[in-house]
Amino acid sequence: PCLWQIEVVHIILRGDKDVISIAATGSGKTLTFWMPLLFRPQDIQIIVTPLNLLRTQNVNNLA
């Protein structure tokens, strides 16, 4: 993971504030919401994806 990804995941796992992360295409945004799900599977995350294909790929990969 890149430093910015680690920082985002750390803030999410602390759980003391909401997080909005915006990054360029291909920069590794997916990792920033997959990692917290591994550590806190009972939590709820809202992920906005601009394409139905991305949503379907993420759902299938995480399942």
| Major sheet characteristics | none
Order of helices and strands: HHH
Give the overall shape: globular
Number of domains: 1
Percentage of β-strand residues: under 5%
Percent in helix:
40-55%
Alpha carbon gap, first and last residue = 22 Å
Average pLDDT value? Answer: 83
Number of strands: 0
Structural class: mainly alpha
The number of helical runs is 3
- What are the low-pLDDT stretches, counting only 5+ consecutive residues below 50? none
- Radius of gyration over alpha carbons? 12 Å
Question: Can you walk through the features of this model?
Answer:
Helix 1 packs parallel to helix 2. The protein has one domain (about 5-60). It is mostly helical and about 60 residues long. The chain is about 55% helix and about 0% strand.
Could you give a short description of this structure?
The protein has 63 residues and is mainly α. It is built from three helices and no strands.
